[in-house]
Amino acid sequence: MTRSVKAIRGMNDILPEETYKWEFFEQTVHEWLAAYGYRNIRTPIVEQTDLFVRSIGAVTDIVEKEMYTFVDHLNGDSLTLRPEGTASCVRAVLEHNLLYASPQRLYYSGPMFRHERPQKGRYRQFHQVGVEALGYAGPDIDAEHIVMCARLWSKLGISGVRLEIGTLGSIESRALHRTRLIKYFEQYLDKLDADARRRLYSNPLRILDSKNPEMREIIAAAPRLIDDLDEDSLLHFETLQHILRKQNINFEINPQLVRGLDYYNRTVFEWVTDKLGAQGTVCAGGRYDGLIAQIGGKSAPACGFAMGVERLLALMLEYGSEITQSVPHVYIVYQGKAAGDLAWKAAEYLRDEGLKTILHCGGGSFKAQMKKADASGARFALIIGDDEVQAEEVSLKPLRDAAEQTRVELRTAVDLIKKQY
Ligand code: ATP
Ligand code: MG
C-alpha cells in the first residue's frame, strides 16, 4: 500500500463546518473596511527574500528563525513565503507609484507563513487581515486605526479585548535609548538568555520583546523609551491619547511595548485578550515612517496593523458570537423522467427568483431523498412525481415546522417560500 500524503504540520485545512465562520468573518470585515474607505490591494504570496530582511530587520525572530526561504532552482533566486503583509504592500505601492498623487488607505488579507512551533493559536500558515495608511503623518490616522478596531470587535461580538499602546519615538530618541539599554543589560549578562546576549549589541530593543519568563523581571525594570522621548513624538503620543479618550476607547500605556519587527517608530499598539492563553495578541500594529525610504522609495510616513484571523475566530467562539450560516431555501426531490425534466426547470427558475436551491442528484427512493432534504437544512422540500407532472404543479413541504404539505403551481410555491423569509 502506498503511504497517504498528509498536509504539512502547522498548515491547516479549513473544512466546510468551519468555513462558514470564515465567510461570516470576511463579510463583516469587508463591510467594516468599506465603512472607513479602505481599498483592497493583493500582492503575491512569494517575494524576494531581501524585501523581508530589509524591512522586518535581520536581527528579529521572524527573519532569523521563522521564514520559509528557498532557492528557486530554475534561476537561483532566493525567495520567501511572506511572513507578514506590510513589506509586500509597501513594495507594491512603490513599484506602481501609488503615492504619486495622494495618500492611500489600503487593506489586504490572506495567508502568512512562519516556521514556528505549532500550538493552539500559532500555526505555520495563518491568516491576517491587514490595514495600511500610507502617506499620512498622523496621529489622527493612528487613532482612526485604533477606533476602527474597536468597532470591529463589537461587530464580531467580542468584548474585553484590552488595548495597550506605546511609543517608540523618533530614530534619534531610539538611538539614545539604545545606548541606555545596552548599559543596563550589560549589568545582567548572566541573566540574559542566548538570544538576548547575541542581540545585545546588534538589536537591544528586541530583548524587550522576549517571551522568556525568566527575563521578565529585568525587562520590566529596563530604561523606558518613553523617558527619552523627543518633543514631537511626545506631542504625537499625547494627541493620539486625546482622540482615544474622546472616543471612549480604554487603553493602558505599556512602556515596554516594542513589537517584534524593526520598522516601527512612534505609535505601537496591541489588542490583547486573556481568553486565549499564551496566544493572547489578536491584533497589532503601529507607525512605520522610515520603511518606505528603507525599501527604496521617496520618504513618506505610514502606519498600519494586522489581525490574526484564527485567533479572532477562536475568540468569537469563546464569546458565543452569533454567526449566521447560509442554508438553502429549497431542496428539490423527484422521481421519474418527466419529473426530472420539470425538476431541472424548476431549480433554475427558483434560482432566477433568488432562492438558494439544491436539486437532488443521484436518484433513490422519495424517502431516501427526503432524508437528504432534511439534512441539508433547507426550509422547504419541493416534491415532484408523476402526479405533479400530470397536474402541472409541485408539492411544497415545509421542513422546519408542522405546517401541511400543499400542492400548488410553481409560481405560487415561490411566493409561499418568499413569504417565509
Ligand atoms: P506573537 O507575539 O503572538 O508571536 P507577533 O508579534 O509575531 O505575534 P505580528 O507579526 O504582529 O505577530 O502579527 C499580527 C497578528 O497576527 C498577531 O497579533 C497574531 O494575532 C497573528 N499571528 C502572528 N503569528 C501567528 C501565528 N504563527 N499563528 C497564528 N496567528 C499569528
Ligand atoms: Mg511571533
From TrEMBL:
It catalyses: tRNA(His) + L-histidine + ATP = L-histidyl-tRNA(His) + AMP + diphosphate + H(+). Residues 1-328 form the Aminoacyl-transfer RNA synthetases class-II family profile domain. Its EC number is 6.1.1.21. It is found in: Cytoplasm. GO terms for cellular component: cytoplasm. L-histidine binds at E84, G85, T86, R114, Q128, E132, R259, Y263, Y264. The keyword Transmembrane does not apply. One of its GO terms (biological process) is histidyl-tRNA aminoacylation. It comes from the Bacteria. PROSITE patterns: AA_TRNA_LIGASE_II (PS50862). It is an enzyme of class 6 (ligase). It holds the Pfam family HGTP_anticodon. Keywords: Aminoacyl-tRNA synthetase, ATP-binding, Cytoplasm, Ligase, Nucleotide-binding, Protein biosynthesis. GO terms for molecular function: ATP binding; histidine-tRNA ligase activity. Belongs to the class-II aminoacyl-tRNA synthetase family. Homodimer. NCBIfam families: hisS. This is Histidine--tRNA ligase. The lineage of its organism: Bacteria, Pseudomonadati, Pseudomonadota, Betaproteobacteria, Nitrosomonadales. The gene is hisS.
